[in-house]
Amino acid sequence: MGAGNAGTADWYRNFGTVDAPASSPCYAEWSLGIAGDPELISRIEQWPHNKRQPLLILAAARFLGAGITPYREFREFLLAHWDEVSRIVLSRATQTNEAGRCTTLLPSLAVIAGSTGRPLALIEVGASAGLALFPDKYAYEYDDGASVTRLVPQPDGARSAAEEPPVLRCTVEGAVPLPAELPHVVWRAGIDLNPLDINDPDDVAWLEALIWPEQDFRRERLRRAIAIAQQDPPLLVAGDLNEQLVSLADQAPPDATLVVFHSAVMAYLDASQREAFRATIGTLAAERGCHWLSNEGHTVLAQADGSVVVPEMDDSRLQGRFLLLQDGVPVAIAGPHGQTLEWL
């Protein structure tokens, strides 16, 4: 959620009461502490608006070594390292690259592959390091409360035990169209303003810092996903998604089904940029048969400028979760890290 007219303190208070508690008591406490700390709020407001988001400063502190501590100690750490925190905040972005979101995307990808009878070519906009471009390389466990559906990639004889794929677990509800096997992906590429390099130790450390403190299972999952991606790194293009998408789509194999997808990206675009993106997707759909998967938080549905994506969706159902749209049609509500999937 952007601070908008509510103010920076309310932004942090919302993060600490709505977004963080279920996943990170530490981040909930820190965010609420900052929200009630006029000195820190004043310092944060010296940064550009798009650099004031809670997760960015929290990740910057973690990157510099802040431990899981009570707020008072965290505040002391921030003040003692403020110049370095500011440098990281101003030079980095919240490029969380959560492979777990593939659990959200996989059913739709399999449906698309099955309907066309062709392999997939994937483009992710806002790709970070491109780890979500490997849905066919990860293992999955979908639990509906009565049974667990397991999916595994084709075995790779060259893979060591340390390079075994991460197992992505998801609790499902409703008639999720779970596939019998993983779809075949023949080409994968991504666009990001500043792609992260999975072979750069600082970029990998930043990806780890973006994982919320108590979630060690996500950190291990990240490391395994990076090991998979390092075997065959995806094509990543630096630049604006609206400027790069068409030319990148032109590079996709013509005999594959093109799918453009994104997670937690549209909130960083204004209304005109989102409209331009939707227009480009429409053109690619008409000319190339492109499919579109949008996996976004409720903040995209109610922007400060009044624009919405799905005005008929009840906002209370989405708070803290994402809405998955397949070719513009809402199909599911998902946990932000792929931990849950409720089919509509």
Q: Numbering strands along the chain, what is their spatial order in the largest sheet?
A: 3-2-4-11-10-9-8-7-1-5-6
On the 0-100 scale, what is the average pLDDT? 91
What summary fits the major beta sheet? 11 strands, mixed
Q: Radius of gyration over alpha carbons?
A: 20 Å
Gross geometry: globular
Task: List segments where confidence is low: pLDDT < 50 over at least 5 consecutive residues.
Answer: 1-5
Helix/strand-derived category reads alpha/beta
Written overview of the protein:
It contains 12 helices and 11 strands. By secondary structure, the chain is an alpha/beta fold. A hairpin with a 2-residue loop joins strand 9 and strand 10. The chain is globular.
Notable characteristics:
11-stranded mixed beta sheet; single chain; 11 strands; 344 residues; alpha/beta; disordered N terminus
What layout of secondary structure does this protein have?
Layout: H1 8-19, H2 25-35, H3 38-44, H4 54-63, H5 71-80, H6 82-91, H7 102-116, E1 120-125, E2 139-143, E3 148-151, E4 167-173, E5 185-192, H8 201-209, H9 216-231, E6 235-238, H10 241-249, E7 257-263, H11 271-288, E8 291-297, H12 315-318, E9 322-326, E10 329-334, E11 340-343
Parallel strand pairs: 1-5, 1-7, 2-4, 4-11, 5-6, 7-8
Antiparallel strand pairs: 2-3, 8-9, 9-10, 10-11
